[in-house]
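Fold it.
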Amino acid sequence: MKDELTELLKPEAFRLLVEHELAAARRYERTDTLLVIDVTGLDAVRDAFGRDGGDVTLRGITRLLRRTARDSDILGRLGDAEFAVFALNCAGNALASRIADAVERTEDAITHLTIRQLSVELKIAITEVRRSETFEELAKRAAPSTLYAGFTEGFSS
């Protein structure tokens, strides 16, 4: 149940694991956070460098997320240019700050494409879980309105 390109969880597998953790969060009264990450500028990279250039960029973003997330965090690829991190027992601002710092420091494919007058931007929506919240409710609050349809669409397939 992993995405072939990034080896991150596909939407349905991500949803199932998060639903399990939502139940645990209620039981143990812990604070969990969902980060939805939208990559903008990917189409320009693909126009300039082809699909392979886009794939290199997506794999670079995946490496960045893996380096900044903790082992206990759940990572998924929700759509073509959308990712998510479910951070267990963590305030979302701390993880978002680590991701932002990693973006500034990274020396991988993302930076190399930026040098050629192209760049991608990561937009991060941070949503702390409410105690009695279902996955559907969390997804609706977490995804910016422009992303919501694509964000939830992948979970029904």
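The mean pLDDT is 82.
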